[in-house]
């Protein structure tokens, strides 16, 4: 049942990406083009997502445990360190160059554009390389 709800959640997310037009990299890149053809629609999509997430978390936190899990899994650290800032910067730079974030690129695979596949291959390579790098936790252990 857990996988069914994961699939449904992904379908709702992908449908939202398609309806909002956020799988079109030109639309996303126009959001970043403040001096040219600026398109504020990405801000409205993000604002709507943040609002729904805010309400959703308030409802979920009233429960003792998730519906399909033993306990809530929260990050252990609240530190803002070089890894967090560097990863965020790398994500933002990639988003600004490609016009895709990984979440929007997956439904965009359905367009058949080679650029989308190339972007997702680059993301997969990045994930692979990250797993190959030693983590700071391994140094302190």
Helix-strand blueprint:
Blueprint: H1 2-20, H2 25-32, H3 41-60, H4 82-98, H5 102-108, H6 114-132, H7 136-140
Helix pairs in contact: 1-5, 2-4, 5-6
Offer a quick outline of the entry.
The chain is mainly α and 141 residues long. The chain has helices at 2-20, 25-32, 41-60, 82-98, 102-108, 114-132, 136-140. The chain has one domain.
Tell me what you see in this structure.
This is Permease. The chain crosses the membrane at residues 42-61, 82-106, 112-129. InterPro entries: DUF6691. The chain is mostly helical. The chain has one domain. It has seven helices and no strands. The protein has helices at residues 2-20, 25-32, 41-60, 82-98, 102-108, 114-132, 136-140. α5 crosses α6. The longest helix has 20 residues, at 41-60. It starts with a helix and ends with a helix.
Measured distance between first and last alpha carbons:
37 Å
Q: Kindly give the count of domains.
A: 1
Main sheet record? none
H/I helix tally:
7
Structural descriptors:
globular, mainly alpha, 67% helix, Permease, 141 residues, transmembrane, membrane, DUF6691, single chain, transmembrane helix
């Amino acid at each position: 049942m857990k996988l069914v709800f994961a699939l449904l959640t992904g379908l709702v997310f992908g449908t939202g990406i398609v309806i909002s037009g956020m799988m079109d990299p030109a639309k996303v890149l126009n959001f970043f083009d403040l001096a040219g053809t600026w398109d504020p629609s990405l801000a409205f999509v993000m604002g709507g997502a943040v609002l729904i997430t805010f309400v959703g978390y308030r409802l979920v936190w009233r429960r003792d445990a998730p519906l399909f899990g033993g306990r809530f899994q929260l990050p252990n650290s609240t530190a803002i360190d070089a890894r967090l800032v560097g990863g965020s910067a790398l994500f933002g730079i990639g988003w600004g160059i490609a016009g895709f974030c990984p979440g929007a690129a997956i439904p965009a695979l359905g367009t058949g554009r080679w650029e989308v596949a190339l972007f997702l291959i680059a993301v997969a390579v990045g994930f692979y390389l990250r797993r190959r790098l030693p983590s700071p936790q391994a140094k302190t252990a």
